[in-house]
Amino acid sequence: MIDFGKETFGYIKLHNLKGKGKLAIYYGESREEALDTAHTETYDKLAIDQAGGDYTVDLSKAFRFINIIADAGISFDKASMLYEYADLQDKGSFKCNDEEINKIYDVAKYTFHLSTKEFFIDGIKRDRWVWSGDAYQSYLMNYYLTNDNGTVKRTTLSLRGKDPVTSHINTIMDYTLYWFLGYTTITCTAAMRLL
Known about the structure:
This protein is α+β, with helices and mostly antiparallel strands. It has 2 domains: 82 residues, Jelly Rolls (Sandwich); 96 residues, no CATH class. It is built from 5 helices and 6 strands, in the order ββαββββαααα. Helix 3 runs parallel beside helix 5 and helix 4 packs antiparallel against helix 5. 23% of the residues are buried.
């Protein structure tokens, strides 16, 4: 069992992995989830045949804890992770005299960065999909914190899809309205830059 200290997103790397047999990695937001091998939602089951060297799991995952179970013939020196993130710099900040509000802001900022990939996704564990309601909230945080207009444009275009548009965004009427609000915000932001 390895605790990475906080929720994160990336690739597990096993250092100096050697042996032949089966190895399973169970991922969890909590210790209990990672230990529950029968019901955990996210896992990798690997067939290992390696004489030595580092091994990186193919797909990125969301987790705080990992539980590694390997056949007796398999060994490795340590496990680490390669963090997957969008390299965006914070341009805004927030601080007040209420430490609880400061903590809430810090968690929101960290969650925003975790959910920012090529697009603004709904979260790192669930479907990791672009949903208009979640995206609209991300646009607002983005304009305050990073002002990364490229991710906003990619997300907006992805949500719209290609012509002809024949259904509501994410098949939800309210989400179509969020898309219009987001598109209006992009247009207004671009117009203000021209002034």
